[in-house]
Write a structure and sequence with these properties.
Layout: E1 3-14, E2 17-28, E3 32-36, H1 43-50, E4 58-63, H2 69-75, E5 76-79, H3 91-101, H4 106-119, H5 135-147, E6 153-157, H6 165-180, E7 184-189, H7 192-198, E8 201-206, E9 209-214, H8 216-223, E10 227-231, H9 238-248, E11 254-260, E12 266-271, H10 277-287, E13 294-298, H11 302-310, H12 314-333
Parallel strand pairs: 3-7, 3-8, 5-6, 6-7
Antiparallel strand pairs: 1-2, 1-4, 8-9, 10-12, 10-13, 11-12
Length: 334
């Protein structure tokens, strides 16, 4: 398959902060390719570099065969996380303004606008002020603006963040239809189910690096069997969890085992398929007089892929990043 987006060894720093640390990826034409990771992982910086809005420190970026910034912009549409609408303009007026910015030939503008309005089912709202739109309609209008110049590649940064489930599902359905028409889509999200539902391939990013890449099925298969979460107490001490970890890693069914500090030092195990895994774990711990507060078993998910690679879930990583950001702001104020 022909490559639509190619990134090689992309790096970007802000002062002493490494935002993107040597990311490489290849997106073939007609795919939905997902970038999954917690807030602050480097997804947005990667996309801004790809869209020529941020200059990388180093690396190669190619979009539909183009490497020069202006040619790249001609080939892609970009929809940022924050909706960029002028609330005093109607939907149609905003699209007319966008068409002028894209230098779309005047004779084509009306037809192009009608096409994207129909595509995103916005015709009934086209002549109403965009400031009166719901969150879902605003995002659809933003998508319409990004598609107006008929790009071969569409870049979406957290396209459904903050939307209700009905609006999210409507956008998912639209993106599937867009892919079927041949448009290549690169989408970033920290919603696990969104990437799982849409993406042909996915790269999981943490701290500016790709820690796993492949189809969702491939990534889950690499994790192994089921995930089992063991809590010794609701909030166990680290040494208690380490003792349980030492005991449980002796079980033949255990493929990998980590301690999740952010979840009260829960012990997370990935086990080979075994109908009696819970029973075996309970028996092993009971034999050494370790009481169990709770046990939970689930099939592998993309969050488990992240957990297996980093020792924490995506939610835990976001909480840790938020705490670090708040602590840094507090120091600056003092």
């Amino acid at each position: 398959m022909q490559s639509a987006v190619r990134i090689e060894n992309l790096k970007k720093t802000y002062g002493t902060t490494i935002a993107v640390d040597g990311i490489s990826l290849n997106v073939t034409q007609g795919q939905i390719y997902g970038l999954l990771g917690p807030n602050g992982a480097g997804k947005t910086t990667t996309m801004r570099c790809l869209c020529t809005l941020t200059t990388p420190d180093s690396g190669v970026i190619e979009v539909a065969g183009a490497t020069e910034s202006r040619a790249i912009r001609d080939r892609l549409g970009y929809v940022a996380q924050e909706v960029a609408l002028d609330k005093v303009l109607t939907g149609r007026e905003l699209l007319q303004f966008q068409a002028a910015l894209y230098h779309i030939p005047p004779k084509q503008i009306s037809d192009r606008i009608d096409q994207v309005l129909d595509l995103l089912q916005l015709e009934p709202y086209a002549d109403k002020l965009s400031g009166t739109y719901s969150g879902g309609l605003k995002k659809r209008l933003d998508l319409a603006a990004g598609l107006l110049h008929q790009p071969s590649v569409l870049i979406l940064d957290e396209p459904t963040v903050g939307l209700d489930i009905q609006s999210r599902l409507a956008i998912w359905d639209f993106l599937r239809k867009l892919r079927a028409s041949g448009v290549t889509i690169l989408i970033s999200s920290h919603y696990l189910e969104e990437i799982d539902a849409l993406a042909n391939r996915v790269a999981i990013i943490d701290k500016g690096k790709i820690i796993a890449e492949g189809t969702t099925s491939e990534l889950k298969t690499k994790v192994g069997g089921d995930r089992i979460t063991v809590r010794i107490r609701e909030f166990a001490e680290r040494h208690e969890a380490e003792h349980a970890q030492k005991i449980l890693q002796q079980l033949p069914i255990v493929q990998s085992i980590t301690i999740n500090e952010a979840q009260g030092n829960a012990v997370n195990l990935f086990v080979t398929p075994d109908a009696n895994a819970i029973g075996e774990i309970q028996n092993m711990l009971s034999a050494v007089d370790i009481e169990v507060f709770s046990l939970a078993q689930s099939r592998p998910s993309l969050d488990d892929v992240f957990l297996a690679a980093t020792g924490q879930t995506i939610l835990d990583a976001e909480i840790a990043q938020a705490e670090l950001t708040n602590a840094t702001k507090g120091k600056k104020k003092r």
